[in-house]
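Need tokens for this chain, all 389 residues.
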Amino acid sequence: MSRLTVLQVHNRYREAGGEDTVVRMERDLLRLGGHRVIEFTAENPRGPAALRSFVASAWNPVSARRIGQLVDTQQPDVAHVHNTWWQLTPSILKPLEEAGIPVVMTLHNYRLLCANAMLFREGRVCEDCIGTSPWRAVPHRCYRNSMFASAVAATAIDIPRRLGVWDDVDLFISLTEFARERFVAGGLPATKLLVKPNFVDDPGPRPNLPSTSNTVLFVGRLSTEKGVRTLLEAWHSSDLAGLELLVVGDGPLREELESTAPRGVRFAGRVAPERVSELMLRSRGMVFPSVWYEGQPMVLLEALAAGLPVVASDIGGIPETVAGHSVLVAPGDRTSWTRALERLADAEWVDSASAANRAVYESRYAPEVALGELEGAYRRAREERGLRP
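Here are the structure tokens for all 389 residues:
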């Protein structure tokens, strides 16, 4: 594909987690592929300014003017929007439309449908606002357990819908087919929704077969939606003599979980990304007991890249992400998890799953695959505008 100038638009915020990593990786990948990337970013303020910015999260004319000025001077070939919550706001789409710039938008979470962006409420999956009204979030205090904050978040969903702002997007990228179906049910046109997964870098070869290790990894935030309580209960009930569960990560449940953890479980806290990659290459397997509709967790892709066998919840887009070579378990079901964990004691299965998962990574989540898919998305968006591919 000929060299493009790509305007990358992203609103950074503390809750973004892996989303910021994805944006940075795509920027670097595009540059490595010979494309020019211009970054337009904002970060949500803290302190007294945060409230003013949050209240204006439905429409910020200042951000619209700034991006309009940038477009006038840089003349991008395509804009790739990753996140507008909340400092940027969907207002940034109007100047792009007026300038005739094709727009691609990645839907990293469910923010266009759900006040808390998770489709998760009171410890369970919730689809109440899909295809209905975001205002249902207010009495349930779905955003930060506050009626006021939930009303602001619902307004930020409702106003762009009423103004038809999302019509200015030429192509939406969904990370999984599961998520795509939810966005279609929520009102986005199916013809504008493309499934394109995330990617991760190649960590290199494993030093040994996974069956030679006795370490099983959990990597993630220690919070309710991650299902760690069920995991520890199942570990206590499983016959896994000689194996150790290493819990990597931190979060609001850490003190509780650590104080009640069964024998054979060790907590490592926060670990640098390089160290996590090293642990994956030297571990026996990974467990992923999430009970909500994850976007597309980078940690799962990293596990596949490391040839790591996976035992994961059968929920949301997780089954299609791991592509059928992993053990899938009913989310939150301790009995099912107890049985599933015991598969990790089977050395033959562990080594076979390792090879299969590495093959999935190479065919679906490697950087060279992602570059071709990104270029294809930009080509399609330009063709929608009648521009030269």
